[in-house]
Amino acid sequence: MAQHEEEKEAYVYILSCADGTLYTGWSTDPARREKVHNSGKGARYTRSRRPVKLVYTEKLPDRISAMRREYAIKQLDRTEKEKLIGSQR
């Protein structure tokens, strides 16, 4: 039996943009999403800041958890986000 969309594991991710800024989002496939951002069809924010590079991913049990974690990461300041990215390397 296939998992429902709400139950499918999801990821929160951080992209490093060409202008040095960081973008946070969520997806069920971060590598595919990075390609979408680099194609110019991602978020409006990243369209003028290409190329972007995937620098952080965090696996979560479902999309609701990923959306909540995305929000929490977006509340962090840049230094805290850099620490998060550094902790994964």
So what's the CATH class?
A: Alpha Beta
DSSP strand content: 15-25%
| Count of helix runs | 4
Extended strand count: 3
What is the residue-mean pLDDT, rounded to a whole number? Answer: 93
Specify the biggest β-sheet. Answer: 3 strands, antiparallel
User: What general outline do the C-alpha atoms trace?
Assistant: globular
Runs with pLDDT <50, length 5+?
none
- Provide the CATH architecture: 3-Layer(aba) Sandwich
Based on helices, strands and strand pairing, what is the structural class?
A: alpha+beta
In what order do the strands lie side by side in the largest sheet? 2-1-3
- H-E string: EEHHEHH
Give me the CATH superfamily: GIY-YIG endonuclease
Helix coverage percent of residues?
40-55%
**Domains counted in the coordinates: how many?**
1
Any idea what the radius of gyration is? 13 Å
Distance between the termini: 36 Å
Give a verbal description of the structure.
The mean pLDDT is 93. This protein has one domain (8-88): GIY-YIG endonuclease (3-Layer(aba) Sandwich). It has 89 residues and is an alpha+beta fold. The longest helix is centred in the last third of the chain and has 12 residues, at 63-74. The protein has helices spanning 30-38, 44-47, 63-74, 78-88, and strands spanning 10-16, 22-27, 53-60. The chain contains four helices and three strands; from the N terminus they run ββααβαα. It has a three-stranded antiparallel sheet with strand order 2-1-3, with helices on both faces.
